[in-house]
Amino acid sequence: MTTTAEVGNAEIYSPLKVLKHPDFRVLAAGEKPSSDANIAAFYNPQHEIHLVEKPKPKPGPGQVLLHVRATGICGSDVHFWQHGRIGDSMVVTDECGSGHESAGEVVEVGEGVTQWKVGDRVAIEAGVPCSQPACDACRTGRYNACPDVVFFSTPPFHGTLTRWHLHPAQWLHRLPDNVTFEEGSLCEPLAVALAGIERSGLRLGDPVLICGAGPIGLISLLSARAAGAEPIVITDLFQSRLDFAKKLVPGVRTVLIKRGTTSKEQAQEIKAAGDGPLKLALECTGVESSVHTAVHSMQFGGKVFIIGVGKNEQVFPFMHLSANEIDVSFQYRYANQYPKAIRLVAGGLINIKPLVTHRFALEDAVDAFHVAADPAQGAIKVQIQD
Ligand SMILES: NC(=O)c1ccc[n+]([C@@H]2O[C@H](COP(=O)([O-])OP(=O)(O)OC[C@H]3O[C@@H](n4cnc5c(N)ncnc54)[C@H](O)[C@@H]3O)[C@@H](O)[C@H]2O)c1
Ligand SMILES: OC[C@H](O)C(O)[C@@H](O)CO
Ligand SMILES: [Zn+2]
Ligand SMILES: [Zn+2]
């Protein structure tokens, strides 16, 4: 069988990578594409978001053609559209397809693909590493560090928010019958949270703080609860998000972060809510003041585990960390988490269904982006379904 390693990422993806105007067409406002058209939502350096029609691809050796059935909009999709970059290395320099939280159905298999057949239902792993034996990251299983990873929807690679998507056969994960496409697509942000749970070393009965009740904080909350954390305190700037957290996990304790209060004052409230200093913080905002709050909420020997991404340069309360032996760690995407995510959802240990608050048809993907980007709409996870 031909594998991605034999074919090579560049060969597989260069047609997508260089897909430029002669190959795709921006749909006119109000234009109705055919029901078979390979439409996708693209952003560009002019901060536009629009529908684009692309050719329907044909699977090559080792590849599978998928009908993408559900895709969630991630904060990073909105960020790339509105701000044109994340950090210094991920920059929108051209038209780029959005979406990386997807699940779909196999519609055609390429030469040598034996593990999939038409009709199989799969979660799509969003980052495809090079899988070359000479790559230390891939060889040692920490493939989120692969320098040649193709991460869909991160420029220059187009996303999975499209109707027909080509994917290497071995980077798909089978969905059992009791896991919906919607849940399959949520396995991507769940993979982020589970990587955090695994690497942070959370243990049964640990008192945990979660900073931020956005999708990543909420999914971390569900995961921390499933892992046996108790008590769990969650923070946010918005009462509506804390109310959502409370509905999701009734036992969670909530602290509203008020602007104008110091991190030490916020930490006092958190420690009161948690019956004392906590052992672990899963920081899901990336905001400097929130990191400080987390640090001041920890016990001696605690850990602040940062999943959120934020400003390039941030100041840390160095001496407090030092004098209290508080560890600080970070998470960059994930490796080896999808199978676990699917098992936890299928087994009923994590119920991610309530996260989806808004659903749109693929043709209305632009409207979906506007809802995801507008805090007044109160969306948690906006999904596009086809
Ligand atoms: N490490 C990774 O691989 C990875 C993967 C996905 C997302 N992320 C990052 O995780 C973070 C969370 O993602 P999300 O989709 O939930 O984002 P989001 O913006 O929807 O949610 C963040 C939440 O934090 C709250 N918040 C902001 N400032 C706060 C503060 N000072 N104290 C408490 N709460 C505060 C916001 O009100 C919001 O509800 C983002 O920074 C995102 O970029 C990281
Ligand atoms: O869920 C994965 C994240 O959104 C990605 O790392 C993105 O932020 C940048 O590629
Ligand atoms: Zn994401
Ligand atoms: Zn690699």
Automatic annotation (TrEMBL):
One biological process term in Gene Ontology: sorbitol catabolic process
Group of enzyme by EC: oxidoreductase
Keyword NAD tagged: yes
Subunit note: Homotetramer.
UniProt similarity note: Belongs to the zinc-containing alcohol dehydrogenase family.
GO molecular function: L-arabinitol 4-dehydrogenase activity; L-iditol 2-dehydrogenase (NAD+) activity; zinc ion binding
UniProt-listed PROSITE patterns: ADH_ZINC
Claim: ATP-binding is one of the keywords in the record: no
One Pfam short name: ADH_N
SUPFAM superfamilies for the chain: GroES-like, NAD(P)-binding Rossmann-fold domains
Gene3D superfamilies xrefs: Medium-chain alcohol dehydrogenases, catalytic domain (3.90.180.10), NAD(P)-binding Rossmann-like Domain (3.40.50.720)
Catalytic activity line of the entry: L-arabinitol + NAD(+) = L-xylulose + NADH + H(+)
UniProt cross-references to InterPro entries, sorted A to Z: ADH-like_C, ADH-like_N, ADH_Zn_CS, ER, GroES-like_sf, NAD(P)-bd_dom_sf, SDH-like
Keyword annotations of the record: Metal-binding, NAD, Oxidoreductase, Zinc
Needed cofactors: Zn(2+)
Highest taxon of source: Eukaryota
Enzyme Commission code(s) on record: 1.1.1.12
Domain Enoyl reductase (ER) residues, every copy: 46-380
Listed PANTHER family: L-ARABINITOL 4-DEHYDROGENASE, SORBITOL DEHYDROGENASE
UniProt-recorded name of the protein: L-arabinitol 4-dehydrogenase
